[in-house]
Design goal:
By secondary structure, the protein is mainly alpha-helical. It is built from 20 helices and two strands. α12 packs antiparallel against α13. Belongs to the sigma-70 factor family. ECF subfamily.
Length: about 425
């Protein structure tokens, strides 16, 4: 533990983006600076447990990273000395610039790094990987395990992403005007995707990956601290907290999915619920209401209900109606149809689902929702068929087991009676 009671690994993770930002801000060369920073973090993780944490751990890391960057640049220069551009490179010792750990723009460094990692030249998969590596401080091996791909594959993805950022020539500075708003939207979308993958894994044996959800929440808190007046930033953090609050109750002892109607709500994270409701309550009256704020408002309605039977479905349906106006997409309409079904009866929802067969025909969430509503009407055979179709379309083992169990027990009186039966099968994207 550090003198402030913080674990060294937590301290390193929180310092990683600030150290990288300081090094890039002074020396440039994002790709090599990222490698140098990772080596500095590794050196700290190896030495600090025995030697103790330095009085100024950030300055220590910056010094080590700068020295390593010098070595990397000299190696790169030696390899490319016959190329014209090598003459334009300068080593850190040649720069006449303020100290890399100066306090001036340091508060913006993490945000600038997020903007760089979410550069529009990168694919969403590359944006996610680079964000987790450069800002999240995760190792390539950790990111590979989280997304169930070989480490070599993730290494290539991150290497290509860093090269693309370098080739783009984007300066290490906050973009201005419309470009800033657009890039912030990309940052929030990437954090949202990271959280969604943690909340319901697209594949694998586990329903959820807590490490990814936790990292998304941590990064959203960072952005919220840097942009406290932005309503959509507050909305995204609130949405994550209100959704993740149900984590402990979402799976049984064997890891099996537990739908919201059957969850023990006393196991929900009350602190997360209170914080999320406070955030969205404060954000909604200010300025334009965006999609993350509306989704957070929907999650708040779910979380404040004392039981599934007490859920205000008409309010949820109305909020989804607003969300369709702000950012309509097939999954939003799917969630709206389920809410309408819970408010006005399954037939009303089924009628709305018919329009989604084209865009969501291969998405398990549509068939899971249809199965649920057909089961509510008592139409057993089509409900069973829809459950089996949904099970065949998801790569997540726990979802498969849940959906197949529903198909096997189609005649039983029990079943998911509330929206998170879609609630764990349907994610708004």
């Amino acid at each position: 533990m550090t003198e402030h009671g913080e674990r060294p690994e937590d301290l390193l993770r929180s310092l990683a983006p600030r150290v990288l930002g300081a090094v890039v801000r002074r020396y440039g060369h994002f790709d090599l600076a990222e490698d140098a920073t990772q080596e500095a973090l590794l050196a700290a993780a190896t030495r600090w447990p025995g030697e103790g944490v330095p009085d100024d751990p950030k300055a220590w890391l910056i010094t080590v990273a700068a020295r390593r960057l010098t070595d990397l640049l000299r190696t790169e220069q030696a390899r490319r000395r016959r190329e014209d551009r090598v003459a334009r490179w300068r080593l850190p010792d040649d720069w006449l610039a303020p100290a890399a750990d100066r306090t001036g723009p340091a508060a913006d460094d993490t945000l600038i790094l997020l903007f760089m990692c979410c550069h529009p030249a990168l694919s969403p998969a590359s944006q996610i990987a680079l964000t987790l590596r450069a800002v999240g401080g995760l190792s390539t091996a950790e990111i590979a395990r989280a997304f169930l791909v070989p480490e070599a594959t993730m290494t290539r993805r991150i290497t290509r992403a860093k090269a693309a950022v370098k080739d783009s020539g984007v300066p290490f500075a906050l973009p201005a005007g419309e470009a800033r708003a657009e890039r912030l939207g990309s940052v929030l979308h990437v954090l949202y995707l990271i959280f969604n993958e943690g909340y319901v894994s697209t594949s694998g044996d586990s329903l959820q990956r807590a490490d990814l959800a936790d990292e998304a929440i941590r990064l959203a808190r960072v952005v919220r601290r840097l942009l406290p007046e932005d309503g959509e930033v507050a909305g995204l953090l609130a949405l994550m907290l209100l959704t993740d609050a149900r984590r402990a109750a979402r799976t049984g002892p064997d890891g099996a999915l537990v739908p919201m109607a059957e969850q023990d709500r006393s196991r929900w994270n009350a602190a997360y619920v209170a914080e999320g409701i406070a955030l969205i309550t404060a954000a909604l009256p200010r300025g334009d209401t965006g999609p993350y704020q509306l989704q957070a408002a929907i999650a708040a309605v779910h979380d404040r209900a004392p039981s599934a039977a007490d859920t205000e479905w008409r309010e949820i349906a109305a909020l989804y109606g607003l969300l369709m106006r702000v950012g309509d997409n097939p999954v939003v309409r799917l969630n709206h149809a389920v809410a309408v079904a819970m408010a006005d009866g399954p037939e009303a929802g089924l009628a709305l689902l018919d329009d989604l067969d084209g865009p969501l025909g291969r998405d398990h969430r549509l068939h899971a929702a249809r199965a649920h509503l057909l089961e509510m009407t008592g139409d057993a055979a089509p409900a069973r068929a829809a459950y089996l179709t949904a099970a065949a379309l998801t790569a997540n083992l726990q979802q498969q087991r849940f959906l197949r169990a529903k198909a096997a027990a189609i005649g039983a009186e029990q079943g998911f009676q509330s929206g998170d039966g879609t609630g764990d099968a349907v994610k708004v994207r």
